[in-house]
């Protein structure tokens, strides 16, 4: 009979961008890159696009200095083990977990990330809205997929994006390999979005995420996509409903910030096998 349990986990997703959540208030877990890769592996682990460690900012040595110590910090890792500054779908799932676990009360809640503090609110209809900060366009560049060149804008949503608006049929794009990006403009890599306007309010998007591959959704990517689509339409501010393979989110861009609204779902919970965890 088993006498001890491994670390607790929760599995969740936001528009099918899926995560393993690891509660670790005091920062005691040894979360190595290899353990992240093992957790995210869809054959030998739980399977996920990324890991969200739930830790108090004060317990994480590399938390940014401007995040107060008592704030819950989303220590985000991509499936390949790399660290990213921000995750728009992850932060909604993170807050759903905090409220579900009784670690926070519903209402506006500050979440620490490597891109700074992000206010998050669970709405009465269950959707979750995140204040994502300013989506900053910092250049223009190109990529190529399936023999076609795409022009896009570089957008900083806390993490780097190349968002390419075109009339290409998105289902035809082969995103099984990483679309190239300019290393001078993106020295730390880039998430690449392909965006097709459907009408004045709606766009369709597919994404290849840095550190993961093609995912069924990327929250920061949808904000970059909305900023790029607005710019292509000659506007700096406005609203876009973004249709991704995993669902639909809504992005509003004002002169001072961007908000992202979408679902956040908890799917399962349990404990890792201690032998598996030790060996991972
Ligand atoms: N899926 C996320 C973005 C996760 C980080 C990204 N892959 C990066 O490396 O910047 C989202 O929902 O925003």
Describe the structure.
- It is found in: Cytoplasm.
- The record marks 161, 209 as: Could be important to modulate the pK values of the two catalytic cysteine residues.
- The active site is at residues 87, 218.
- Homodimer.
- The protein is mainly β.
- The protein folds into two domains: 8-127 and 264-279, Roll (Diaminopimelate Epimerase, Chain A, domain 1); 133-261, Diaminopimelate Epimerase, Chain A, domain 1.
- It is built from four helices and 17 strands.
- The strands form two sheets. Strands 5, 6, 7, 8, 9, 10, 11, 12, 13, 14, 15 and 16 form a twelve-stranded mixed beta sheet that branches. Strands 4-3-2-1-17 form a five-stranded mixed beta sheet, with helices on both faces.
- Strand 2 (17-23), helix 1 and strand 3 form a beta-alpha-beta unit.
- It is globular.
- The mean pLDDT is 97.
| Topology order in helix (H) and strand (E) letters | EEHEEHEEEEEEEEEHEEEEH
- Spans of at least 5 consecutive residues with low confidence: none
Major sheet size, sense and barrel closure: 12 strands, mixed
Percent strand:
35-45%
CATH superfamily of the largest domain: Diaminopimelate Epimerase, Chain A, domain 1
Ends apart, CA distance between termini: 22 Å
| CATH class identity of the largest domain | Alpha Beta
């Amino acid at each position: 009979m088993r006498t001890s349990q491994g670390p607790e986990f929760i599995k969740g997703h936001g528009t099918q961008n899926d995560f393993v959540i690891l509660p670790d208030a005091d920062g005691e877990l040894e979360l190595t890159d290899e353990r992240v890769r093992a957790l995210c592996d869809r054959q030998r682990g739980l399977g996920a696009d990324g890991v969200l460690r739930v830790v108090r900012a004060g317990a994480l040595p590399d938390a940014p200095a401007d995040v107060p110590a008592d704030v819950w910090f989303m220590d985000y890792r991509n499936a390949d083990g790399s660290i990213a500054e921000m995750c728009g779908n992850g932060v909604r799932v993170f807050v759903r977990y905090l409220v579900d676990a009784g670690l926070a009360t519903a209402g506006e809640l500050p979440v620490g990330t490597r891109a700074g503090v992000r206010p998050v609110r669970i709405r009465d209809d269950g959707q979750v809205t995140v204040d994502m900060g300013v989506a900053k366009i910092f250049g223009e560049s190109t990529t190529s997929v399936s023999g076609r060149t795409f022009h896009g804008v570089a957008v900083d949503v806390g993490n780097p994006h190349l968002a390419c608006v075109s009339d290409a049929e998105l289902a035809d794009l082969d995103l099984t390999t990483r679309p190239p990006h300019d290393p001078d403009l993106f020295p730390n890599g880039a998430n690449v979005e392909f965006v097709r306007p459907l009408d004045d309010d709606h766009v369709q998007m597919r994404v290849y995420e840095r550190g993961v591959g093609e995912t069924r959704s990327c929250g920061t990517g949808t904000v970059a996509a909305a900023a790029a689509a607005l710019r292509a339409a000659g506007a700096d501010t406005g609203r876009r409903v973004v249709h991704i393979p995993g669902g639909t989110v809504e992005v509003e861009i004002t002169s001072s910030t961007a908000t992202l609204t979408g679902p956040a779902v908890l799917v399962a919970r349990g404990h890792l096998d201690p032998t598996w965890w030790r060996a991972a």
